[in-house]
């Protein structure tokens, strides 16, 4: 869904890019969005030939996609202030630091945890997108 949102923000461009994701079927509502996102380096899949079209997106995956879409800006945001800051996957650490620094992610519950591998709920996704859009303005 996030790939489709970002793709539509870009005007739904048509790209000529061969995808290697075995689980992305041609002709689905998300196919061209994932093709575009992969061609732009916004998504890379799991590295085993799967994209995870039916998987829920985690908070760290969400942050990585926004980070890459934004142009992978250098970040100095610290994750050490969160109780589970060390639980962030290595591949997502810089993006999560960027999201914290930009105020997109402020923590879960009482704000002391990131819950990086936790599923991004619809409410959390809406807030992340709202904060991200406000940061662009």
Number of strands: 0
Our measurement of the CA-to-CA distance between the termini, rounded to an integer number of angstroms, reads 23 Å
Helix content: 25-40%
How are helices and strands ordered from N to C? HHHHH
Give unreliable regions as ranges.
none
Q: Note the total helix count.
A: 5
Radius of gyration: 15 Å
Largest sheet: none
Helical/strand content category: mainly alpha
Cα shape: globular
| Chain-averaged pLDDT | 92
Strand content: under 5%
Can you describe what's shown?
The chain is an all-alpha fold. The chain is 38% helix and 0% strand. The chain has helices spanning 2-9, 31-39, 59-69, 93-101, 122-136. Helix 1 crosses helix 2 (31-39) and helix 3 (59-69) crosses helix 4. The longest helix has 15 residues, at 122-136. The mean pLDDT is 92.
What is shown here, in short?
Helices cover 38% and strands 0% of the residues. It is built from five helices and no strands.
Primary descriptors:
0% strand, 5 helices, globular
Fold topology:
Layout: H1 2-9, H2 31-39, H3 59-69, H4 93-101, H5 122-136
